[in-house]
Amino acid sequence: MKDKESSENQNIHSASFMNQLFVAKKYKELNQVALSNLEINPNDFDNLNALAVSYKLLGNIKKAEETFNLLLSLGCKNDYILSNAGNFYYDTGRIDYAKKCHEEAIKSNPNNLNSLNQLGLCFSNQGKDKEAIEFYKKSLSVNDKDVSTHINIANSYRNLGYHQEAANYYEFSEDPLARCQQLECFYLLGDKDLFNDKLSKFSELNKPHPLAATLSSHASIRYNQTDNFSFCNKPFEYIEKSNLFKSEDIDNNLILEFIDCFNKLKISKKQQSLLANGYQSSGNIFMIDQPPIQSLKKIIMEKIENYKKKYNDGSSTFLTQWPKRYTLYGWIIVIENGGNLSGHMHKEGWLSGSFYLERPEKKEKHDGDIIFSLHGSNYPQDKKFFPSKIVDIEKGDVVLFPSSLFHATIPFNSNKKRITLAFDIIPKT
Fold first, then answer.
1. pLDDT per residue over 312-324, tens digit each?
2. What sign has the CA pseudo-torsion 8, 14, 18, 23?
3. Which CATH superfamily is domain 235-427 in?
4. Which of 152, 166, 77 is nearest to 122 (CA)?
5. Global pTM?
């Protein structure tokens, strides 16, 4: 009996200690402790969970997936572990797997806040924002002060075109992106005075953000007013194109290996309302621990660093306040005959880019090219002129640009697919 009690106490202490390591962000130590504990009890759920989470946070996605898969095969029913597994599958683009994990977590614990939120995100990913809102409201019934839930429900209302409702929920957050998204709602509602008042107050915070810059630039043309929000002066001058074939950074074999690897992963398709006759992959493809993906990631990271060095002349907030820490987030966009991606900007990014894996032949001058603009889809134009710039692209091209710029693809007529690896650098707080 004493031995049993001693063992139980040891497990409790071990779980508590591992949680302390997690909170302290000592992920290497957490990984080592979990591995050591598993030598004694190979199938302990808490230790396997700690191991999987630490692998994920250390970037060993392959090991993380193996460990989460093992947990599920052992019949784990712990709601917080199932929730962690669901988060992992969502982040790596396996939305159906993520939904199953979160549904099982909620069966075990109907008040699991994370799984209620994540299920909402899964439905939103699939273009089902009405269903997503139902889960967010259940989450708010558990904790009506959870900021992330307010942001998530605001995003879904915005996706549905309910901008006033979205603005109300964004009010709960002081996060710069949420404040900028609220600004966007006021702008789309046509409330000029409220928009300008909120923009002025946001500017006083001295927190440069690409979405605020986009809105300020658009409003300056629409309302004939001064653009006082500094992010990237003359953004068209910061568009850079280079070809990896011509610089001999890669050859076609790497591209073929990358595409083959991507197809075998069977990543879920994300519902993208601005995308016609095509699809976008879910999750962050750069989290996938496969050689072709990581090889391209390394090349792109080098291009980003070279870009920063080249343009760092001290004249633009975009460069002078370049994030010290950031995540490279990537996804695949496949467009087929007659398709296109309408004008949009990347609200969470700082610098954005695209690498062209496949490019259909041109039958007209700019078939399948990319067009940059100060105006985007769903924004009011009011018969005003917004500058734009077309960039010709070839297979192997990498195009880098400030995330504040709207961009769109020009429709094309070809049986060959247009395959793009799109990416952002997202600042870490």
1. 876 788 999 999 9
2. positive
3. q2cbj1_9rhob like domain (2.60.120.620)
4. 152
5. 0.89
